[in-house]
Fold this sequence. Notes:
Helix content is 42%, strand content 21%. By secondary structure, it is α+β, with helices and mostly antiparallel strands. It has one domain. Helix 1 packs antiparallel against helix 2. The radius of gyration is 23 Å and the shape is elongated. The mean pLDDT is 88.
Amino acid sequence: MADIFSIVGSSLDAQGSRMDAIASNLANADSIAAPGTAPYRAHEVVFEAAPVGPTSDDGTGSSDPAANDPGVQVLGTVLSNAPPNMTYDPNSPYANAQGYVTGSNVSSVSQMVDLIDSSNSYSASVAVLQQADRVDQQILSSFQVS
């Protein structure tokens, strides 16, 4: 049962990283860039299935089959390829020669959908941990002498 805690822990860490990226994106959703500078681009977290569990000290891996249990690893973040938001506002001091203001490419709606998805995944992982704890408690109580 200890393996489930490593697997779910990796999931919680990954979803935490995803929520951090979403928070940063939402904080910069309405940002604009001065002419000649790059606007904020949305960050997207990249996950990978990766083994979790203990490894041996010699770096060759562990003989424990639990070390091969799949978990989630955050590879990093990538910047969104979506085009920047262009708004026509010739009176803005941030407008280019054509009168357009360049804003971030963050879609608040899609970020909120991602936040809900990440929150649901996080909640499901917590529920798995709680259920695993209940199973552990039932196993322990079955060995108690009355």
